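Researcher: Let's do a round of design. I'm pasting the structure tokens now; please hold your answer until I've finished.
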């Protein structure tokens, strides 16, 4: 700032102290009131720097920053923050890096393992070159990682879609098999060539009237099939249908007048009986 503003040596103290802010400005005003303006502004720039160093450059704070510099490493993939903080600490401790190679070595030491060997193999000559190489390598690693994540997500999505499609196809096959295909026999009994069923011994009796197994036609108790069979026989012989309730021809059992009268009488008797019970 002295060079930019062409500040003369006798005005350096006034120029620098007028830029102080906060606690530093309060400290300087207190010093001026103690020693007076003449003595305060008569000191040299070297004396002012020593006084400010004694005030604000505490040894305990210096040790903290030195430890921070030696332990400084990249957190995650944040190269920007690492580069900025390393440059700040390196400016405060110039004496710690007498040569540019010492600073580069300490900078490379704090890089993560994923790019450390590559930066060492590139053998940077300057600090700027080391920073550019490390930043470029980290950017490539991040892009590769993002691309792999995107590819893995795409593969997972494709696998899920394929699994859902296979599930739908299997469901359709099972539904079609349940409707149109016969379930295969899973037992150990032989297949009968006569009845086309799996069993041991003779075939089970089957009624040709109701198409049920376990009885013959003469023992069939299905009234519909019996009436149909008898009516079919009567019709084939040129006879009228016969009622199996009253034995008369010309009507079926469902239209029998005697059965209807009997049902009516039963209903009347039941009504009278309920009336007597109610009167009692």
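Researcher: That's everything. Go ahead.
Model: Designed sequence:
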């Amino acid at each position: 700032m002295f060079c930019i503003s062409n500040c003369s040596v006798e005005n350096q103290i006034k120029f620098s102290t007028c830029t102080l802010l906060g606690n530093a400005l309060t400290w300087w005003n207190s010093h001026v009131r103690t020693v007076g303006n003449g003595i305060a502004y008569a000191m040299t720039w070297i004396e002012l720097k020593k006084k400010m160093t004694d005030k604000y450059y505490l040894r305990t704070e210096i040790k903290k920053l030195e430890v921070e510099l030696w332990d400084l490493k990249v957190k995650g993939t944040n190269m920007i923050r690492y580069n900025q903080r390393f440059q700040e600490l390196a400016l405060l401790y110039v004496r710690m890096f007498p040569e540019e190679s010492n600073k580069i070595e300490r900078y490379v030491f704090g890089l993560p393992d994923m790019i450390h060997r590559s930066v060492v193999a590139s053998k940077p000559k300057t600090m700027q070159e080391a920073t550019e190489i490390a930043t470029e390598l980290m950017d490539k690693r991040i892009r590769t990682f993002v691309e792999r994540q995107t590819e893995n997500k795409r593969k997972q999505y494709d696998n899920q879609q394929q699994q859902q499609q296979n599930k739908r196809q299997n469901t359709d096959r099972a539904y079609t098999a349940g409707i149109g295909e016969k379930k295969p026999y899973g037992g150990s009994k032989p297949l009968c060539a006569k009845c086309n069923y799996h069993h041991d011994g003779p075939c089970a009796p089957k009624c040709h009237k109701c198409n049920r197994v376990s009885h013959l036609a003469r023992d069939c108790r299905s009234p519909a099939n019996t009436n149909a069979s008898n009516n079919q026989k009567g019709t084939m012989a040129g006879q009228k249908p016969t009622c199996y309730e009253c034995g008369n021809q010309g009507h079926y059992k469902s239209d029998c007048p005697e059965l209807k009268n009997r049902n009516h009488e039963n209903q009347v008797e039941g009504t009278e009986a309920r009336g007597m019970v109610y009167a009692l």
